[in-house]
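Appendix B. Raw example, untouched.
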Amino acid sequence: MDPVKVETEKGHELVRKAILAQIEEGRLLPGQKLPSVVDLSTSFGVGRSTIREALSALKATGWIQVKHGGGTFVHQVLPSSQSSSLDPFKESKNVKELLEVRIWLESGSAAYAAERRNEEDLKKLKQIMAHMEQALAANDTRMSEQADIEFHLAVAAASHNELLNTLMSSLACRLTETMGKTRQLWFFKNQSSAALLLQEHQSIFDAISAQDSRLASQLIQSHLLKAADVLNQGILQD
């Protein structure tokens, strides 16, 4: 008998399904505000990053919407259960393909972010940069990975293009699964990588803050191309 690989669901997927079930069963109604990330984290007994990943997936598939400064709400117009599974990135198992999509998507989002960012966007990015510094000082890999993901999602949000932001949110779960792999490659190639990654994110932030759209686009493209370059050298086999 041939062995069968059995994969258990990740925490964020279980949380996503639980919240989705409450919406479909009418326990959470269209327009209703969801509890805060902190309260949901306590309720489900998981970390805040797990809650954020679950909410990102629900937002990407049209079940919830996030109002800046106002909280998270069940979407007024709900998609069908069938449409909720149509995540354009869900079926991709290839890290290289995901990086290629990110290069084109994020270079554009960085350019628009530089043009359109407001003080609230800059405040959010500064907070994430502070988390990156804390993670580096504590040598906390998990915290560092989550801050990295949040930074790229915050850049997309700063573009103030709803479709672009939704596409990046659709990538959130896949980013979580592949971020560890790409960072391992990066660290393997460059011994001082943790500090260098922080410096690169700082440079991207500075370009966005200075409203230099061309530089912001170039920097984030270069940042992602380095991971793609390692893949092309065959260090990671998909």
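End of appendix B.
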